[in-house]
Design goal:
There is one protein chain. By secondary structure, the chain is α+β, with helices and mostly antiparallel strands. The protein has helices spanning 7-30, 32-40, 114-144, 152-182; strands spanning 47-58, 64-75, 83-87, 99-105, 108-110. Strands 3-2-1-4-5 form a five-stranded antiparallel β-sheet, with helices on one face. α1 packs antiparallel against α3. The radius of gyration is 22 Å and the shape is elongated.
């Protein structure tokens, strides 16, 4: 049986491309997707938070990282007890005593907020970028049946990271404006 030149390289390259995208999808599903769904309001409301205080948050470098609010969380289902919780990246600084409908993810409450939406869109893009570049590189290796190719896929990586940041701003700013005007 005659062996086609480069068959092994093509199969490994295609497998690498598929596995890269599968790992990216799994990581996105595991890490930012639940938060993104909660911020977008997908699914039923998990409960309400009666706000006790709101405050500006800074990241580890001292830069502003949005507004968080603390308060008492009352679950929608009657079997769970009330507890203190943080409303992560709130849409605005809520007055003490106000109640806010929230969706819960990993012990943190979320509401529709442009800042939170932008953050989770950026995280999604930052995860996707390296795996997309790797997948395209594997695909090029499979197409050429060789493991050597030029470094254009590093530019794809840089472009996807920049596109993720731009997309985060493009979706976050209008949502922030809409929430400020209509929320």
């Amino acid at each position: 049986m005659a062996r086609t030149e480069g068959t092994w390289e093509r199969r490994v390259g295609l497998t690498g491309a598929v596995v890269s995208l599968a790992v990216a999808g799994w990581l996105i599903w595991l890490l930012p997707a639940p938060h993104l769904a909660a911020v977008l309001g997908l699914g039923p409301v998990d409960g309400v938070v009666r706000i006790s205080s709101c405050y500006e948050v800074t990241d580890w470098q001292g830069y502003q990282d949005g507004t968080d609010c603390t308060g008492t969380y009352t679950p929608r289902s009657g079997g769970e007890p009330e507890r203190q919780i943080t409303l992560d990246k709130a849409a605005r600084s809520h007055e003490p005593g106000n109640t806010v409908e929230v969706r819960m993810v990993r012990g943190r409450a979320h509401e529709l907020s442009g800042y939170a939406l932008g953050t989770w869109v950026a995280v999604t893009g930052m995860i996707l970028g390296p795996f997309l570049a790797l997948s395209l590189s594997f695909r090029a290796c499979a197409r050429d049946a060789t493991w050597s190719h030029n470094g254009d896929y590093f530019l794809v990586f840089i472009a996807t990271e920049i596109a993720a940041l731009v997309l985060a701003v493009v979706v976050g700013v209008p949502v922030s404006i809409a929430v400020a005007l209509f929320g």
